[in-house]
Amino acid sequence: MKTILVANQKGGCGKTLTAISLASALAQKGYRVALADADNQKSSMHWLKQRPQTAAPIASLDWRHEKSIGDAPKNIEYLIIDAPGALSGEHAEQLVSEAHAIITPLQPSFFDIDSTRRFLKHLQDIKRIRKGKVQILLLANRVKPNGINSKEMQDFFAKVEQAPVAWISERSAYGQLAMQGLSIFDKTQKNFVEIQKQWQPVLQAVIEDPSEWF
């Protein structure tokens, strides 16, 4: 089982939408997927409760309490963890100890830059990360049209000192579908497939699957 932790101490950066997008992408591909919610807001679990039975199945895990961390069905191939915003101390170490990769979504704002820099510095204090056993990927999230080529965005990641693995555009479809327990990967129409393609670099970075996704 490969475990992917979606985390950033900055609230509102799109952790849950990132987690549910990855989980549904893998489920649609035919993998056995579980989504573990470690956040007291229970956003991922609420999303899964709304998910239609006709959609690709995703197992729901409640990891809000430290004693439950690590509990997962043995047949799961990929586990996505939706981390809490206040990720620190022993709780952080427990979640990181389960992860093979950490995806950190962030938006192009001063507050995201500052918070993410401190979060990445904090991660370096965790022994498993210092030893290079966990892959850390930044995800430029909710990027406005034409934002990728702007000088502000380029300076943004220069300050963070790490290029993003992918640029995800701001789209109303994410929120609209989430209300139905769905994601963009549950749709096959051409306009949704074009949005899905933005996630290809993320999937290629963390999933060992050379076949075409879209």
Walkthrough of the structure:
By secondary structure, the chain is an alpha/beta fold. The protein has a single domain (2-206), classed as Rossmann fold. The protein has nine helices and seven strands, in the order βαβαββαβααβαβααα. Strands 3-2-4-1-5-6-7 form a seven-stranded parallel β-sheet, sandwiched between helices. Helix 4 (110-123) runs parallel beside helix 6 (151-160). It starts with a strand and ends in an 8-residue tail after the last helix. The mean pLDDT is 88. It comes from Acinetobacter faecalis. Residues 4-180 form the CobQ/CobB/MinD/ParA nucleotide binding domain.
Radius of gyration: 16 Å
Task: Give the spatial strand order of the biggest sheet.
Answer: 3-2-4-1-5-6-7
CATH architecture identity: 3-Layer(aba) Sandwich
Structural category: alpha/beta
Count of all domains: 1
Query: The CATH topology, please?
Result: Rossmann fold
Going by CATH, the homologous superfamily would be P-loop containing nucleotide triphosphate hydrolases
Shape: globular
Mean of all residue-level pLDDT scores: 88
Taking the sheet with the most strands, its summary is: 7 strands, parallel
Q: Strand share of the residues?
A: 15-25%
Query: Which spans of ≥5 residues are poorly predicted at pLDDT below 50?
Result: none
List the total number of helices.
9
Order of helices and strands: EHEHEEHEHHEHEHHH
CATH C-level label: Alpha Beta
**DSSP strand count:** 7
Q: What assembly state would you assign to the polypeptide chains in this entry?
A: single chain
- Could you tell me how far the N terminus lies from the C terminus, measured between alpha carbons in angstroms? 24 Å
Helix percentage: 25-40%
